[in-house]
Amino acid sequence: MVKWIGLVALAGMLWSAPACAEDGYDLWLRYRASPATAAQAAVATGVVRDERDPTIDLAAAELARGLSGLTGRSVGESAIGDGSVVIGTPRSPRIAALRLPLEGLGREGYVLRSATIDGRRVTVVAANAPVGVLYGSFRLLRTLQTGSSIAALNVRDRPKLDLRLLNHWDNPDRYVERGYAGRSLWDWQKLPGFADPRYTEYARANASVGINGTVLNNVNASADMLTPAFLPKIETLAGIFRPWGIKVYLSARFSAPIEVGGLKTADPLDPQVAAWWKAKADEIYARIPDFGGFLVKANSEGQPGPGDYHRSHAEGANMLAAALKPHGGVVMWRAFVYASEKPEDRVRQAYSEFAPLDGKFADNVIVQVKNGAIDFQPREPFHQLFGAMPRTPLMMEVQITKEYLGFATHLAYLGTMWEEVLKSDTYRPRAGTTVADTLERPVRPGAPTGIAGVANIGTDRNWSGSQFDQANWYAFGRLAWDPQGSAGEIARDWAAMTWSPDPAVVAPVTAMMLRSREAVVDYMMPLGLNHLFATGHHYGPGPWVNDLAREDWNPTYFHKADRSGIGFDRTRTGSDAVSQYAPALTRTWGDPKRVPEKLLLWFHHVSWDRRMESGRTLWEELVAHYDHGVAEVAAMQEQWAALEGKVDPQRFAEVTQFLAIQRGEAQWWRDASIAYFAEVSGRPLPAGTVPPPQPLAYYKAIRTPYAPGNGK
Amino acid sequence: MVKWIGLVALAGMLWSAPACAEDGYDLWLRYRASPATAAQAAVATGVVRDERDPTIDLAAAELARGLSGLTGRSVGESAIGDGSVVIGTPRSPRIAALRLPLEGLGREGYVLRSATIDGRRVTVVAANAPVGVLYGSFRLLRTLQTGSSIAALNVRDRPKLDLRLLNHWDNPDRYVERGYAGRSLWDWQKLPGFADPRYTEYARANASVGINGTVLNNVNASADMLTPAFLPKIETLAGIFRPWGIKVYLSARFSAPIEVGGLKTADPLDPQVAAWWKAKADEIYARIPDFGGFLVKANSEGQPGPGDYHRSHAEGANMLAAALKPHGGVVMWRAFVYASEKPEDRVRQAYSEFAPLDGKFADNVIVQVKNGAIDFQPREPFHQLFGAMPRTPLMMEVQITKEYLGFATHLAYLGTMWEEVLKSDTYRPRAGTTVADTLERPVRPGAPTGIAGVANIGTDRNWSGSQFDQANWYAFGRLAWDPQGSAGEIARDWAAMTWSPDPAVVAPVTAMMLRSREAVVDYMMPLGLNHLFATGHHYGPGPWVNDLAREDWNPTYFHKADRSGIGFDRTRTGSDAVSQYAPALTRTWGDPKRVPEKLLLWFHHVSWDRRMESGRTLWEELVAHYDHGVAEVAAMQEQWAALEGKVDPQRFAEVTQFLAIQRGEAQWWRDASIAYFAEVSGRPLPAGTVPPPQPLAYYKAIRTPYAPGNGK
Known about the structure:
The structure is a homodimer.
Chain A: H1 2-13, H2 35-41, E1 46-49, H3 54-71, E2 84-88, H4 93-98, E3 110-117, E4 120-126, H5 130-145, E5 154-157, E6 163-167, H6 197-208, E7 213-215, H7 231-241, E8 247-251, H8 256-259, H9 271-287, E9 293-296, H10 313-324, E10 330-334, H11 346-354, E11 365-370, E12 394-399, H12 415-422, H13 435-440, E13 450-454, H14 470-481, H15 487-498, H16 503-524, H17 555-559, E14 565-566, H18 583-589, H19 600-603, E15 606-607, H20 618-641, H21 649-681, H22 696-701
Parallel strand pairs in A: 1-2, 2-4, 6-7, 6-13, 7-8, 8-9, 9-10, 10-11, 11-12, 12-13
Antiparallel strand pairs in A: 3-4, 3-5, 14-15
């Protein structure tokens, strides 16, 4: 009898899925049942839709998957009844009859509404287009995942930016520049023949946070990506991404007409060059009718560009834009330029070069500006171009991958960093105009808006190299959707979805996240210091480095420490970069007494003995920040340790080990930096300071040639 | 009420594992219940052991995991009863009392026996040492996984070779030379702080097939692997692998004393050099007391070696061996050498250089010889060194990664290829002495024996780049354990464990595997042709290539086709490499009438018009083989398609897509090769042959610069 039952049960198990460890692969879409979520999700009894559409199919399947997971029972598509989740566009008569306020929501916005249809209490997910239905479905699931009720829903939302893009710095050999999460997801060797299921999961995760485009390849681009050998592969990816509302873009190498086109020049004013790009665009669109466009890094760090032919960035961008225009594509032209020929302060150069071009770009060009003027440092003031080109669409570029914030092993939630930039007041055209505002407001009706994040995604099982780095992918998507969003709220949502909606988990996880970025600033580069990294890979401290080919690659260029003081004078007595900001900011930030201390050494060279708000000297304050940064990591370790048993063991162990690595590396940063600045300043350590355990020479001698992500 | 039950059920689910797709991660250790396996496994009620030992802990846990999976119910450790699986060594009184025939089984052998203990019917897994218990436990599980009964067990087994090693061609930056499965598993950046759970899974999978050692780094070695920066990382891996019976080895760069030791020379007879290596060995063993030893590629393809100082391979190897000797380590010295200065046939050179050194090596040196004299081609005759150095331990090196058999996407089961070599008669010292025999018989009592396989493992979720390439890892382990084993039986076991024990699955999967390697030979390089690959990456055909720096890198060197004929004359009228074999073979293989046709062009240059056994001319026969190879892939596609619904959908789809890629590439090989040989021979296509769809120039123009694995 026992045997017989066993066999019957087994017959049903044959194709059942096996147990599988919590390894982070599921991201924030785990859909695990918990008492909190199940109680809320229990009201959902089935999914109802009238429309057949690939994207609505995905929305319905996602709701079925999510509701089944969250309730712990099978919830599928069904006929309408009490508790149904009814999804669709006004093409569905049931949706149309509700006369929901869909106007002004565009294709991507949605309405979530508790309603009654034919006497049944239902939850409606409605939108003008299928992709809005998909976004609304993910929003509904998020509501449940975070333990909220859907019993009296009334949500109306739309994204505030048009282009919400990932930029992959992925090379065709699958090396990822500044990648700390394995190799490129794009398996070019097996494409187009093999459609790795992971491509679908990637698109799904992006769609769940509203990301609607992806630049597949590195801005340090290979022209080979534009060749017939690659286009069918790219077409396959585009086809997989399309129903998830995600367009494909490519980084275009400006000299491609020479390298793969057989021309003698890439001069943007040469008719043959323009014709080559036009034909190339036509070739791409024949395969990918919704191709998004090109991203271009030109005349920057050795990349080719219109400057090679004495043409302006506008001339270069507009030529490409003309090729894309008939197809509806855009050119995203990066403003990250600095030239070794010019002795000008590197912080000034993008503004100097681009601000005069305001109004000169074609209407399907958008200039892509990094959040700050250096390069994704742990803290930078917002880029002075935001608000400074009122006739030119600007999009912001942030770096999700943590090139400068500890690679994959340091816990550093970037939501707060981006929020700091987005909420910065540009004073342009007037006080109260934040960076987010400048991004959201089209410079003319129909002009594109957008944001791009340099992806932290690779083949690692957990996607981003660590469990907590998933939060940065997530937060980027959420802030791209709503740049006014709260980093704290986003962290809470992520923690609930990714770890557990149990408040005993959400609260400490969120607290760790919210303190984490400032901890990195403190143990790496407090008080406005920046770019003090070891050469090339940027792994570990290198404030002493002074031997690089370009002056403005050297840490000593950035901190300018000597016996008397430290900091980069960017006031009128120095480079005067501060004058590139609006006058109100020039006055505040240009005044060492009024500038926030966290930006002090960015704008000012000051004495080691300067008295700080705390009453300490600058030297004492600097050391205190380093110590505080290390202490913060220790505090995060304690917070995490208390979660043992409240989160699954595999991810718990991984985070525990990563925090220990971070602790050790924070200590390394602190010790090496203090040893160095003590020598440069000629000052003794402040009383009570624990001396670095090794002499400065020890830290200088550390070599880590195999640190990942170093550009090739 | 419903709600209340729901919440109670949910409370239990909170930490339960979610469903997870069948993606190949579980390898042949899936332990899924099926009627066939469950019926056999049902007799096992619990696991009993008396000993506390890390390895016996693993054996007990593995049995619990396996039996639970195979029966579909929870089977754990328990007190003895009917159906217990009792495991241990004679240190356990219950085991000792059984007086099992453990003599002669060494540390690694085991006995499986159905027995009665205290009146209970039990199954016993016994061994002299814990690692034997572990191997025996995996053997017991295999018996159940393949649907066999354990009701009347009487198995006694031990491995026939001492060293059963994987060689990882992994660089410190995680690039894998000739790797088609992602990056190196060894995450040096995060080691030693992060012990990726995958390291444990890797060790477990190896232990399950009896692999007992791993060379962590590429034979084209970086000296950095021997530095204090890496040794703690290696120590961590060794600690994880140890309880699984796996020792760690390193590839040693011969010039390390210069590169990381600060010496001016690496001359093996220089006392400072010897002292440096001795100190280095001491340093390693202080961290890893059971470190296995060094693998060395010396004076081969640009690697440094004793020849740089006019010393012999024996002098180089013996110097290293002296450093390892006090600790019990071995030196594995590769015989894969060929020098561009010498115009000698590349096939001859290893024998010419090594055979005279017989008897000159220290007793902890073992010479590692590839299965054939060229380089892991789809078919080679066995290496003439096997049996030719009776006073020198030789181990065989095979390549599990498919550098020359279609990378990850071609289904090519290598078990049959290795079996062909292992069962080849060396006629040394007399007829009937197979290569396997020469490997198994120690050249003196206590002399080491062994085999090494160049790993096909990487970070890809399925470990080996494809589902079917897992079979090659598996088959290597099984043949390393028993070189007399049957590739067909091994394929059947793997198919049952990996896909399903259902005979309706096992039979066609096994049939596909057993025909697959000959299919590759046919569509790439039939009749003894070899090394006709595109340059560098070896992806795709390049029989026309004739522009490489070294003559013996060029395909034209290997096939020597011209108007009159094709093939490499290795008889007395040519290079006379055939005389390096035993006289009986020299006679047979040296005679174009007696040599097996599958080796014809390896040993002979013959006319296109030569009449073959089939009655066809050689030219017709060659074309027929190419066509047959493509047809075989089509046949595999058909066999696989019929399995839809019998295997899980994700893996089914992946294999389906890979077979389609293989079909396309087989066609490419066939078309390009026929187009080329038609032109070289000046002959029309045989009647009825489908002409290549493109002219030869088309195939010659194909460039695939990003094909993976190309050496850096």
